[in-house]
Specification:
Elements: H1 7-20, E1 33-37, H2 49-67, E2 71-75, E3 77-78, H3 82-95, H4 105-129, E4 140-141, H5 145-160, E5 164-174, E6 179-181, E7 186-200, E8 203-207, E9 218-221, E10 235-240, E11 243-251, E12 263-266, H6 272-281, H7 298-301, H8 311-320, H9 325-338, E13 342-356, E14 364-373, H10 376-387, H11 396-408, E15 412-413, E16 415-416, E17 426-429, E18 435-437, E19 453-455, E20 459-460, H12 462-466, H13 469-476, H14 481-485, E21 488-491, H15 498-513, E22 518-521, E23 527-528, H16 545-552, H17 554-562, E24 571-572, H18 575-596, H19 617-638, H20 642-665, H21 669-687, H22 692-702
Parallel strand pairs: 1-2, 3-4, 9-11, 21-22, 23-24
Antiparallel strand pairs: 5-6, 5-14, 7-8, 7-13, 9-12, 10-11, 14-15, 16-20, 17-18, 17-19
Length: about 725
């Protein structure tokens, strides 16, 4: 054996031999199944350090259960990732001076598809590089035709059961990405915006959205506010920048009398609260901002009365039309002052706004027709499954969070105005306006008899298809998989997608199969830098997992990612951490080198020790300690305490075996050799799930009976003495 472990010499070759031997496919006809469906990495980008943590966590569990003799399946895949992938691709187009608007739908889709296939190939290589022992023969992609067919079938069933509806409502629209998002995909941040206090007839109204003033349809006051309750129900004349308009004062208990002036302008087309209030009072929904985030005065400019309006108003409307929102506020301030309507102005009013989770563009609440899923009937069953223990959360804080979210979920907007994804199988009749939903095929005619049917151009929210991932993968990978491996054992995504994905998988899994999709939701924390900051390109603290694996070895990276913190907690990682775990690989290698340099018998066997004949106290002690550490590591892995298992292993190898027993054994090498070999072999088995490459390399040097005898398929150590 070499004097030092060279990971670059061994890792690729070992993985290729494992894969060639088909070790990652399930084996054992009568054994119980242990299944993990890999949370599919996005197909648009290489793996990041968070993916590496998932790989380390899941592969440790998979290798452990495989060695225990369970019928083990780790099914890999990739997610088309909808808006995320299109967003990344559009950035590439921008660098070439192009945009999505330069291509027709089919061409843009094909271009993204080709780019994704290249990235997917890279992603598979990276998973292999990290040692992921998943069954590549079952790899699935969310846009595989058989997957798509099942997704469409789910949508059709939801529609038939009255759980899908189409409605014109206010949506969270990102003008930059050009699509709507669900409430869960909207983030919030504090910003400084100008605060305007404007004359509204006899009142003064405070607002950070003066640009929507042109489509205000009412004024709202708290009915208990003595200052204004006498005005409720009355219509007042309000002087505006385009002339006077009439508005009715309506009651709204949610108006805070202590906030601003205690009067709220009502714009149903641009505020969720106002939209609901408008439905109650039957107010018109008239937008003033378009889907590009610009002012739209076409309603005024195209009106027959426009030519008869005063020139001042006509000039203003033409000036306003097409202005971005922020620019409009600057222009409005000047005109409000000119007309004597601006009472006060604060340029730095701090408040919280909704932003797109992808590009951080401010979200515009805009009215449009979308498809929605009624989630409460689905959430009710998911709640029952968690409360009854059918789905377990090792972390009780995430269980409480899951229950809270399920109890408060709103209907789910699943329409997205993008090209990349699964197109919604719905057709609108041009004659009667009704929608027909199928499982993919275009209907021959509408119920009214018309054949003029136009397909919806929207695609599904990517979370709609990926929330069916556990059952659609097993129903399409290989014949009989669903019956053998569903429900799966563990789902292991990041805790930040608990609401986006985990809860929706439970809801749709129960709905389509009658069973939970997984028995344990093992949510993992984020990977942060050594200062505890979130890793991001903007901060310049990105840790490339492949670069680290190439530099220090995949084994070192894997242990560093589970070391020192529970699975559900965030992990502060630095290159120093990874370098330190490389030292552990070297220590294990050196132990193996010492023991195997003086092997007492055939290299193809592990000594069969007889406890009654072990007389030396140090021999008995190390075997007793091995028994104890085996018991503890097994217990830790069964309870998903991967950090404790890794730390127990480290302490045993470094201190009790290398520092203590090996030093004692040197003086009585010949007598101690059988015990050394036995302890080494059992230690390699215990260490294999954590550091699979170095342990396999040592095993091949000393204990493999043939070229097809692998540590990866050896039996997990028992808790009894030899």
């Amino acid at each position: 054996m070499d004097s030092r472990y060279n990971h670059q010499k061994y890792e690729q070759g070992i993985y290729e031999r494992w894969e060639k031997a088909r070790l990652f496919e399930p084996s054992g006809h009568d054994s119980r199944p242990f299944t993990i469906i890999m949370p599919p990495p996005n197909a648009n980008d290489p793996l990041h350090i968070g993916h590496a943590r998932e790989v380390a966590t899941q592969d440790i569990l998979i290798r452990y259960h495989r060695m225990k003799g369970d019928k083990t399946l780790w099914l890999p895949g990739a997610d088309h990732a909808g808006i995320e992938t299109q967003f990344v691709f559009e950035k590439k187009l921008q660098k070439k001076g192009k945009s999505r608007f330069d291509y027709d739908r089919a061409t843009l889709y094909r271009m993204i598809w080709e780019d994704v296939q290249k990235q997917s190939t890279t992603m598979k290589k990276q998973l292999r590089r990290l040692g992921a022992s998943c069954d590549w023969s079952r790899f699935k992609f969310t846009l595989d035709p058989d997957i798509v067919a099942l997704v469409l079938k789910t949508f059709k069933k939801l529609h038939e059961d009255g759980l899908v509806y189409r409605e014109a409502a206010l949506v969270n629209y990102c003008p930059e990405c050009g699509t709507a998002f669900s409430n869960l995909e909207v983030e919030h941040k504090e910003v400084a915006d100008p605060w305007f206090e404007i004359k509204y007839g006899p009142f003064v109204v405070g607002t950070v959205r003066p640009e929507t003033k042109f489509r205000d349809t009412a004024l709202a006051v708290n009915p208990k506010d003595k200052r204004y309750n006498k005005y409720i129900g009355k219509t007042i004349t309000v002087e505006g920048l385009l002339g006077p308009v009439e508005m009715t004062v309506i009651p709204d208990p949610q108006v805070d009398p202590k906030f601003g002036t205690g009067i709220m302008k009502v714009t149903p087309a641009h505020d969720p609260h106002d939209f609901e209030l408008g439905k109650e009072h039957k107010l018109p929904v008239a937008p003033i901002i378009d889907f590009d985030g610009k002012m739209d005065f076409s309603w005024y400019l195209d009106s027959p009365e426009f030519k008869n309006e005063p020139k001042k108003y006509r000039d203003r409307a033409e000036k306003y039309h097409g202005l971005p929102v922020k620019k409009m506020r600057t222009v409005m301030r000047q005109d409000l002052e000119e007309d004597g309507l601006l009472v006060s102005y604060n340029p730095n009013y701090r408040h919280t706004i909704a932003v797109c989770y992808r590009c951080r563009t401010p979200i515009e609440p805009l009215p449009m027709e979308q498809w929605y899923i009624k989630v409460q009937p689905l959430a009710k069953k998911a709640l029952a499954a968690i409360k009854s223990g059918k789905v377990g959360f090792p972390s009780k804080q995430f269980e409480r969070r899951a229950l809270h979210w399920l109890e408060n979920l709103k209907d789910w907007n699943i329409s997205r105005q993008i090209v990349w994804g699964i197109q919604i199988p719905a057709w609108k009749c041009e004659d009667c306006g009704e929608w027909a939903v199928t499982d993919g095929e275009k209907p021959k005619k509408c119920q009214c008899g018309s054949t003029k049917l136009t397909k919806d151009t929207d695609t599904f929210d990517t979370w709609f298809s990926s929330s069916q991932w556990p059952f659609v993968t097993l129903q399409t990978a290989k014949k009989g998989d669903f019956e053998k491996f569903y429900p799966t054992s563990v789902m292991n995504p990041a805790y930040e997608i608990l609401m986006f994905w985990v809860l929706r998988m439970i809801m749709l899994g129960l709905y389509m199969t009658g069973q939970v999709p997984f028995r344990t939701a093992l949510l993992h924390g984020l990977v942060r830098d050594k200062q505890g900051l979130k890793i991001s390109k903007s901060k310049g603290n990105v840790i490339d997992p492949i670069e680290m694996a190439d530099k220090y070895g995949a084994d070192a990276l894997r242990v560093a990612l589970v070391w020192g913190t529970k699975v559900e907690h965030d992990n502060s990682l630095s290159e120093d951490n990874i370098r330190g775990q490389r030292n552990f690989s070297n220590k294990l290698w050196n132990v193996g080198r010492f023991v195997l340099s003086n092997k007492s018998n055939s290299r193809h066997s592990v000594p069969n020790l007889q406890p009654s004949k072990i007389e030396n106290s140090s021999d008995r002690k190390i075997i007793s300690e091995l028994e104890g550490v085996t018991k503890n590591i097994t217990s830790h892995l069964d309870n998903y305490s991967l950090n404790e298992a890794a730390e127990e292993l480290y302490d045993f190898v470094w201190n009790r075996l290398a520092n203590d027993y090996l030093e004692i054994a040197k003086a009585r090498r010949k007598d101690a050799q059988p015990v050394l070999e036995y302890v080494l072999a059992e230690t390699l088995k215990l260490a294999h799930p954590f550091v699979p490459f170095v342990t396999e390399a040592i095993w091949q040097q000393g204990f493999a009976k043939s070229k097809t005898d692998f540590l990866a398929e050896s039996k997990w150590p028992s808790n009894t003495k030899p």
